[in-house]
What does this fold into?
Amino acid sequence: MCPGWIYRTCRLYHHIELPSEIAVGDTVGVRFGSNPKRYRFPVARIVRDGENCIVFSQPHETTGVEKIEITSCHAAIVAGGL
It folds into this structure.
């Protein structure tokens, strides 16, 4: 997480809880850190990389933005579609 309004440097957090399903347009509440912080993460883009996904807080930028890397993610099956 690199929330510029809180920290001047990026910090890596492991094992944050996420809902079983998230989609672009969602806002996901996350808690992280040894002194738990709460943050509302806007899901602007999801990029799939094989079995893994990266969830970005911005629709176009990939550097200098907040992101969540998810291992072993799967695309949802939507009735009547993909």
Notes: Residues 1-82 form one domain. The chain has one domain: 1-82. The mean pLDDT is 79.
